[in-house]
Write a structure and sequence with these properties.
- With about 375 residues, the protein is α+β, with helices and mostly antiparallel strands.
- Among the domains are: about 100 residues, Winged helix-like DNA-binding domain superfamily/Winged helix DNA-binding domain (Arc Repressor Mutant, subunit A); about 90 residues, no CATH class.
- Helices cover about 40% and strands about 5% of the residues.
- The strands form 2 sheets. Strands 1, 2, 3 and 4 form a 4-stranded antiparallel β-sheet that branches. It has a two-stranded parallel sheet with strand order 5-6.
- Helix 13 links the parallel strand 5 and strand 6.
- The longest helix is centred in the C-terminal third of the chain and has 29 residues.
- The C terminus is likely disordered.
């Protein structure tokens, strides 16, 4: 048994230990799959008593349907990390010892490699070799043509200096949902807020999302408009979901592009969004309020109350009451005071309804 290795107790324990090893967990999904396929063929081809396996490379290629170079690479990976111990290397009659370069036939033919299933031993924490006290500490370094560190000069080209690490993004995810981003940095902050609001968008970077949403941001969309476009169609009908989990969406950028294309026309223009419609309605309401304000100011000027300071609170109410009474008096109409109306209510008498302009009486 090679040093640093021990024979595995069972085949199942060998497969489980290999699958849970940190070196295997850090592999890509395709590499881990190929490794476990090859390891499974080697494991279940072993002898149950000796735990030695002799599968040929051709058989592993046939069973796994992988390339021959791939199989050899992963077998070498298992040997170098102590998962396979070489009991007998593969050999042919020409290069085997004692055959006189293939002139003497030994009757064995081509011999496949024989491996034993092993578990790599964990090195102890103090596995570092101690240097004797009577010997000076030495360090072996590979030969190099570069001058020592003390004699190094400034590089003649910029490429020789290592590039500094990229600074972290200063984009803040706290961007208001109803604020329209204008600059690139503000749009990046808006995308950070979208990724914070929607977990599905976290599978994309904020810069990639900003590139996808460029037509909407150019049209003056807010993050709330983007969320509305992703969940609601232009005819105010909800999108239907055919997946039960967001992990079932394989390509998130394609999903986002499909949802947003329903809002863009053939020319790529974005129709009025909810924030645009709300702004238009607000502008119309304020225009109507300004028109009514100008109308009342014109009436006040005609009544001779122009130029007076505009009161607020109770003063505005008193000014309105005085203006109404003056207009009624100019038209020859009488005013019923609130005190007389309250006395009539206490006596149980019915208050007469307000008369029209011909009767000459109007209730305030």
């Amino acid at each position: 048994m090679p040093d640093g290795m021990r024979r595995t107790p069972t085949q199942t324990a060998w497969l489980r230990s290999l699958k849970e090893h940190p070196d295997v967990l850090t592999l890509r999904c395709d590499g881990s799959r190929n490794l476990m396929l090859i390891a499974t063929i080697i494991c279940w081809s072993a002898n149950w008593r000796t735990l030695c396996s002799r599968p040929t490379i051709a058989r592993i290629v046939e069973r796994t349907r992988l390339a021959k170079a791939t199989v050899k690479r992963w077998v070498r990976w298992l040997r170098e990390r102590g998962w396979l111990g070489v009991v007998e290397p593969g050999s042919t009659a020409r290069y085997r010892k004692g055959t006189n370069a293939g002139l003497d036939h030994d009757g064995l033919g081509n011999r496949a490699a024989l491996w034993v299933l092993c578990l790599p031993r964990r090195p102890p924490a103090n596995a570092r070799r101690r240097q004797p006290d009577d010997q000076p500490q030495r360090s072996s370094e590979p030969p190099t043509l570069s001058p020592p560190r003390g004699e190094r000069t400034d590089p003649t080209r910029t490429r020789e200096t290592p590039r500094p690490p990229l600074a972290p993004s200063r984009a803040s995810p706290i961007w208001p949902l109803h604020a329209m981003p204008r600059t690139k940095r503000e749009r990046l902050q808006a995308c950070q807020r979208l990724r914070r609001e929607t977990p599905l968008l976290r599978r994309m970077t904020a810069r990639y999302l900003r590139w996808l949403l460029r037509p909407f941001f150019t049209a003056g969309a807010t993050p709330h408009d983007v969320l509305h476009a992703l969940n609601v169609r232009p005819d105010d009908s909800r999108w239907t979901y055919t997946w039960s989990s967001m992990n079932e969406i394989r390509h998130v950028p394609g999903w986002v592009r499909h949802r947003l294309e329903a809002w863009t026309g053939h020319d790529g223009r974005v129709p009025p969004l909810p924030s645009h419609r709300a702004a238009t309605a607000t502008a119309q309401r304020r225009a109507a309020q300004d028109a009514r304000k100008r109308e009342w100011e014109a009436r006040a000027a005609a009544a001779g109350l122009a130029g007076a300071p505009t009161p607020t609170g109770a003063g505005a109410v008193e000014r309105g009451v005085a203006l109404a009474r003056r207009l009624l008096q100019e038209r020859g109409l009488s005013v019923i005071s609130p005190s007389s109306r309250r006395r009539d209510d206490r006596r149980g008498q019915a208050v007469p309804p307000p008369a029209d302009a011909t009767s000459g009486t109007i209730c305030q």
